[in-house]
Amino acid sequence: MFSKDKWNEILESLTSNVFRTLLTAFGVFWGIFILVILLAAGNGLENGVKQGFSGIATNSMFMWTMPTTKAYDGLPKGRRYNFKIGDVQAIKENVNGIEYVSPRNQLGGFGGANNVTRGLKSGAYNVYGDYPEIIKQEPMNIIKGRFINQNDIEQKRKVAVIGTGVQKGLYDIGEEVLGSYIKIQGVNFMVIGMYEKTTSTRGDLEEAQKQIFVPFSAYSQAFNMGNVVGWMAITAKDGYSITNLKSDVFDVVKKRHRINPEDDNAVGNFDLYEQYTKISGLFLALDAVAYLVGILVLFSGVIGISNIMLIVVKERTKEIGVRRALGATPWQIRGQILFESVFLTIIAGMAGIIFATLVIFVLNQFLGASASPETMFINPSVDYITVLIALCILIFAGLLAGFIPAQNAIRVKPVEALRTE
User: Fold this and answer.
1) How far apart are CA 291 and CA 30, in angstroms?
2) Dihedral sign, CA of 197, 199, 203, 205?
3) Where in this chain does the record put each ABC3 transporter permease C-terminal domain (predicted)?
4) Are strands 187-196 and 228-229 parallel, antiparallel or unpaired?
5) Rounded CA gap, 161 and 154, in Å?
6) Average pLDDT rounded to a whole number, residues 265-293
7) How much is the pLDDT for 192?
8) How far is it, in rounded angstroms, from Cα 366 to Cα 232?
9) What whole-number distance in Å separates Cα of residue 116 and Cα of residue 128?
10) Mean pLDDT, to the nearest integer, of 286-294?
11) CA nearest to 43, candidates 321, 332, 324, 356
12) Which residues contact 110 (CB under 8 A, 6 or more apart)?
């Protein structure tokens, strides 16, 4: 219930020595400010890192062949083998929970010899023989034309989708790309689309624009690959974990290629989902550290408030004695001290939250002006849940700060208090 006298008493108590009150409140202000800033910084870093995974099917792995390390079925160790196109269907049929299995072949690349020409211009680019499903596993914006489709696969069409980096290297400004031809190791491919990437799993966004995608079947025919598969991109369905399914995938491959079931080194892999899970766990740990550091700093402010409330109780000993003599119960005395402590804590804490919000707003304005796809720190912020948690921490801190002074207050005996000068 609202009591004007009680609020006047609280304000009079806190303003009787303004400088002392401000110094004491600063500890709580600074503690909650640090807590909010640390949590916002953690979210900003998390947003930046996860932007690198945006559009990527994170529940995926990449798989390639390695020399066998154990003899099996009359075959020696150290044997090399190749995936076959039949492995794709075998994995789909024998491993429950697989969404996509995309076989890939690759040639060329950055740092290699020039493998693509157009007229007098040439360049070294990564060329991938792919199936249409790869666009669902790897982020790619088609800005002109289209991506390869199933008809391209079935009819072995020599068509290509190029990146914006390839366009800059092989075409003049304003020159039409669609319908033109490029030569990949001497074989003509017609350009049917152009893509642009905003993220890259390998971290080099500029190089990610310098890739060429052609139908897997046309690639195999043009470059005499037969039914050989270089490597595969495999994605699990929603509700399944590729980390849990990959051992079943390996078992299928080992059985088809007569590899020792215990030879764990014969199939190389990169588990993107496992890495993504580790990163998510890292940010949970960072949030925990932020809470720990913020609460420890806040605790120093709580100690300050507790000290000032002890002094206030000492200064008001006679007043407390009078109130006790007039019939005030211990709970009324205790409640008054606790209420003052919580009030001071919340006021200081809310000021810290408001100041932290202003700092975050200014920082977001600055980051928004200098944002780029490769920025690793994006939109540092805290949500309403975090603010509510901070308020709960403040209330608890205020109660904690006022508990000992309140206990001291109710121990005051009226007769002794009235004798105090």
Assistant:
1) 14
2) positive
3) 292-413
4) unpaired
5) 17
6) 85
7) 96
8) 42
9) 13
10) 81
11) 356
12) 124, 126, 207, 210
Alpha-carbon distance of 142 to 366, in angstroms, equals: 31
Tokens of 203: 């971290």
Domain assignment present for 145: no
> Within the chain, how many helices (H) and strands (E) appear?
14, 14
- Across 397-421, average pLDDT: 65
What is the domain extent for residue 36? Answer: 4-53+277-419
Nearest CA to 52 out of 197, 196, 203 is that of 203
Dist. CA 200–CA 376, nearest whole Å: 13
Q: Which residues of 365-379 are buried (b: 16+ CB within 10 A; e: fewer)?
A: eebeeeeeeeeebbb
Q: Is residue 11 part of a domain?
A: yes
Q: Report if residue 178 sits inside a domain.
A: no
- Could you tell me what percentage of the chain is helix, strand and coil, using 3-state DSSP and rounding each to the nearest 5? 55, 15, 30
Average pLDDT over all residues of the chain: 82
CA dist 378 and 393 (Å) reads: 27
Share of the chain above pLDDT 70, in %: 80
For position 233, what pLDDT does the model report? Answer: 93
DSSP code of 175? Answer: -
Tell me how far the alpha carbon of residue 26 is from its chain's centroid.
Answer: 33
Q: Which of 104, 119, 101, 79 is nearest to 260 (CA)?
A: 79
Question: What residues contact residue 270 under an 8 Å CB cut-off, 6+ apart?
Answer: 61, 62
Nearest C-alpha neighbor of 106 from the set 64, 78, 76: 64
Quick: pLDDT tens for 158-193: 999 999 999 999 999 889 999 999 999 999 999 999
In this predicted structure, what is the pLDDT of residue 1? 44
The listed range with the strongest mean pLDDT (12-21, 161-170, 322-331) is 161-170
Query: Which tokens in the block code for residue 383?
Result: 């949500």
To 10 degrees, the CA torsion angle through 408, 411, 416, 420? 10
Q: Which residue has the tokens 């109780």?
A: 313
Angle value at C-alpha 172, between 166 and 174, nearest 5 degrees: 105
Reported as a single tens digit per residue, the pLDDT across 376-386 is 677 787 777 87
Q: What is the pLDDT, as a whole number, of residue 390? A: 75
Find all residues with CB under 8 Å of 6, minimum gap 6, and list them: 336, 339
Distance CA 98, CA 86 (A): 16
d(CA 392, CA 349): 11
Handedness of CA 289, 294, 297, 303 (dihedral sign): negative
User: Residue 195 — pLDDT band, cuts 50, 70, 90?
Assistant: very high
Lowest mean pLDDT among 56-70, 114-128, 130-144, 316-330: 316-330
How many domains does one find in the chain? Answer: 1
Position of tokens 């596993």? 137
